[in-house]
Design brief:
The protein is mostly beta strands and about 200 residues long. It has no helices and 16 strands. The protein has a 5-stranded mixed β-sheet with strand order 9-16-15-12-13, with no helix packed on it. The protein is elongated and about 110 Å long. It starts with 18 loop residues before the first strand and ends in an 18-residue tail after the last strand. The mean pLDDT is about 90.
Length: about 200
């Protein structure tokens, strides 16, 4: 003879962990977002680990890097029924320029020199794109331009810098252009020695 037993086996639903990210640039913040599949009716907890260090417990986390290289990201999704799923991914953080420039407020028709002090953390070539509102643009490293305006104008100046095969970054500042002649300082010295 043989002994047999019978009973009900309860199979609990499990999550499927997964996540995405946005920018992977050394000087920027990266946002990691869970796109995990959670069974209906279950409550999920999220546990993030970046390079073996705890990084947060919500469905999104952010991280600023400060350096380039491979980073190890883990997301462990734990359901209220006790089931869990862990996913591991590697991401590569790329070099990113630190954009900076100087400008001067000028009068209409005067040459405006733009001083580019962007820092390139690599030996690769930087590519530059300047945009001066809807007035003009330039791809020079340090452009020099004249502006023609009818009235006092504030011009947004944006510099984009990009590294081939890596990241791009930008900075916007505001420049003021004054029309002639009312708002500009014009030096005049009379010559009393001259007569008709």
């Amino acid at each position: 003879s043989s002994d047999t037993t019978s009973g009900n086996l309860l199979v609990k639903a499990s999550p499927v962990a997964d996540f995405t990210w946005d920018r992977l640039c050394a000087e920027s913040e990266t946002k990691f977002s869970s796109i995990s599949t959670i069974p209906s009716g279950e409550i999920a907890d999220y546990y993030w680990t970046i390079n073996s260090a705890s990084a947060g417990s919500s469905n999104t986390v952010t991280k600023k890097w400060g350096s380039v290289g491979i980073q190890n990201i883990e997301l462990n999704v734990v359901l209220s029924n006790g089931c869990s799923n862990l996913i591991k991914k590697e991401v590569e953080i790329l070099a990113e320029p630190l954009v900076e420039f100087e400008l001067e407020n000028k009068c209409e028709g005067e040459v405006v020199n733009f001083s580019n002090s962007t820092i390139n953390p690599t030996f690769d070539t930087l590519r530059y794109s300047w945009y001066f509102g809807n007035i003009d643009s330039s791809f020079s490293e340090e452009p020099a331009l004249r502006f023609s305006v009818d009235s006092f104008t504030k011009v947004p100046v944006t510099l984009f810098a990009s590294i081939d095969g890596a990241c791009a970054s930008s900075l916007t500042k505001e420049m003021e252009i004054y029309p002639l002649p009312n708002n500009c300082q014009i030096e005049y010295t009379p010559d009393y020695a001259f007569s008709f």
